[in-house]
Structure formats: C-alpha cells, structure tokens
C-alpha cells in the first residue's frame, strides 16, 4: 500500500530539516519562539504543512519558513480546471473544502488553484488582468469565482466584474486575539485604547474587516474609541496596520510585536486548534458585528461550469459541516443580520 505524506519517511525527513532551519532562523533573528505545544516551524506560515495544495505531482519540495514561502497561493498553475479567488480569512478551511469538493467531483482532483489574499487585493489582481507579482515571481491567472463579503460581492456584480446572483453561505463574528494567558489582561474592546497596548489591526485600504471592526468599536466606546484605535494609536505607532491580517496578526503576537488584534473568531479558533500560543477574548453580541460571506461567478470566467459547481457546493450541508468546525454560523436569509464581511 502506498505511503501517505504523513507517514512517508522522506517527507518526515524534509519536515525535520525545515524545522531545524526554522529554529536557527528564529533564534538568529531574536524572535520569540512558540511554546512547546507549537514547533518552531509552525511559527511562520504556511501553517498547514502543504495540506492546502491539491497538486498530485509536487516535484521538488522547497519551502523555507520566513524566507521562501507562498502561503496564500495553492495548487498547480499549469492547467487548472477551476480557479478560486477567496478572501483570506478562511484559508485554513480551504484544504478540507477542496478535498470534499474533489471527492464529490473527482474530475477536478489535483486541478484546482486558489488564492487567499485579502479580497481588496484580489480585486486589484482581477483589474490587472489576473497578473500578480510575489517576490521575484510574476504570473497571470484568470479566476472563475470570487468570494468575499456579501456587500462587496454585490458591488462587483453591479459594476460588471462579477456575474450574479450572489451566493451567501456562512456567517462569522469578531473576537480579540491575544497571546496565551492574556498577559496584558485585555478584557474588552475598550481596553484597546490603552496607550501602552500594542495593536495589530487590519488596514482599511484593502481589508474590509476593518469596517466591521470600526463599527464594533463605535458600539463599544463611541467614535472616540474608533478614533483612538485607528487614528491616534496609528500616529503614535502603537497600532500597526497589517497588509494581510489573517497571517500577520497571529505572527506579530507570537513575535511579541503586538499585544492584541481584532480578527474573525474563526481565525482565532484555527490558531488555537493547531497549538499556537494564542487565545481570544470574546466580544459581547451587543458590540459584535456579524459578517455574511458570499461568492459569485467572475464575468468571462474560463471555467464557468466548474465555478457554478463550486458555488452550489459552498452552501451545501457538507461544506457547512467543515465551516462549522471553525465557529462559522449558518447563513439564514430570514434571520441573519445584513452586516457584511470583506
């Protein structure tokens, strides 16, 4: 019987070498390593040991955490049958989602490519004809379906970038991510205004979650709290705006570069599940904001039939069982708030 990747001796040896190199890099850079529950190789993305890649033939494996890694680009670009542009805040759920989709549609096995950078940046990539540059590599890929917050998806349908209808599928809420044991004793959104508290916060320029965070800050402490977090502390240098919060917030906390950051609750649950030294502080419902995630077909999609199959799958019972593991809620048109995600 063929060995799985997890039990393949060569794979284990490669992981050991990556771990050894990551430990050296971590110590050399003076970066705080994770607790024993989290290995040094896990501190830096990617965090899923290649599981977010459905390519069947991977050839030479060369991933060096912190140095050479493309954490939010997945699969094989050679001849994909389905290309998905997914707002990055559920990158961790994509591996099981793709596996389930390919189980139900085996003709797509090993032929799906997906990106999970912030939705605003995905739009910029689409406007650039699908071309993107990461480090020294440039490639062009035309997406078949796009996924973000319901309001954003509707806006893109209205301007012709996407073709309706919008397909809503799950909901999410905000939480405050902190280091394990919460050493700065962050108890509420109001605490984020404390001058000594270092924050990692999504950048309003291209991370739509910042709109939901600002709305929750206003609920908790009025315009003064939102201004303190997103203006005063930015100017003072105690709020650092991220470029890709679903990667940077967790990493900045583990590096002791930040003390807290507001994220979607699913992201915090994922970090805790994989053993990183992180936890979260719940935000009361009266101060929280509900996101509705949605997707739609990209106008001129190269593989429209495949995109429609994914859009049908994404709001199926099988897909929701996967989302539910990370704290996502079920989208119910009659009862769900109209608040929207990125």
UniProtKB/TrEMBL annotation:
Signal in keyword set: yes
Alphabetic keyword roster: Signal
Superkingdom to which the source organism belongs: Bacteria
Region forming the signal peptide: 1-34
Record InterPro entries: ModA/WtpA
Xref: Gene3D superfamilies: Periplasmic binding protein-like II (3.40.190.10)
The keyword Phosphoprotein belongs to this UniProt entry's keyword annotation: no
Pfam families: SBP_bac_11
Family statement drawn from the similarity comment of this UniProt entry: Belongs to the bacterial solute-binding protein 1 family. WtpA subfamily.
Protein's name in the database: ABC transporter substrate-binding protein
Upper taxonomic lineage: Bacteria, Pseudomonadati, Pseudomonadota, Betaproteobacteria, Burkholderiales
């Amino acid at each position: 019987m063929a060995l799985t990747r997890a039990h393949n001796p060569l794979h284990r040896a490669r992981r050991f070498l990556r771990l050894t190199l990551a430990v050296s890099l971590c110590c050399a850079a003076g970066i705080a390593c994770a607790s024993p529950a989290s290995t040094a190789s896990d501190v830096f993305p990617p965090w899923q040991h290649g599981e977010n890649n459905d390519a069947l033939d991977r050839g030479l494996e060369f991933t060096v955490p912190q140095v050479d890694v493309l954490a939010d680009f997945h699969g094989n670009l050679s001849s994909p049958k389905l290309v998905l542009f997914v707002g990055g805040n559920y990158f961790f759920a994509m591996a099981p989602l793709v596996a389930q989709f390919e189980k139900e549609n085996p003709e797509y096995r090993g032929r799906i490519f997906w990106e999970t950078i912030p939705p605003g940046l995905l739009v910029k990539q689409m406007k650039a004809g699908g071309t993107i540059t990461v480090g020294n590599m440039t490639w062009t890929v035309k997406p078949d379906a796009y996924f973000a917050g319901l309001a954003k998806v509707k806006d893109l349908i209205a301007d012709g970038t996407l073709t309706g209808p919008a397909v809503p599928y799950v909901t999410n809420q905000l939480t405050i991510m902190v280091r394990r044991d919460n050493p700065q004793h962050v108890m509420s959104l109001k605490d984020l205004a404390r001058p000594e508290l270092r924050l990692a916060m999504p950048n309003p320029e291209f991370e739509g979650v910042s709109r939901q965070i600002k709305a929750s800050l206003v609920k908790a402490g009025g315009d003064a709290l939102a201004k303190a977090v997103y203006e005063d502390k930015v100017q003072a240098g105690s709020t650092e705006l991220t470029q890709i919060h679903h990667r940077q917030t967790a990493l900045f906390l583990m590096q002791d570069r930040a003390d807290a950051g507001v994220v979607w609750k699913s992201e915090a649950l994922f970090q805790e599940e994989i053993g990183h030294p992180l936890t979260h502080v719940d935000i009361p419902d009266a101060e929280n904001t509900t996101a509705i995630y949605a997707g739609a077909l990209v106008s001129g999609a190269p593989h429209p039939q495949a995109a429609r199959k994914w859009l049908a799958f994404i709001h199926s019972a099988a897909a929701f069982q996967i989302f539910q593991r990370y704290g996502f809620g079920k989208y119910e048109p009659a009862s769900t708030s109209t608040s929207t995600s990125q």
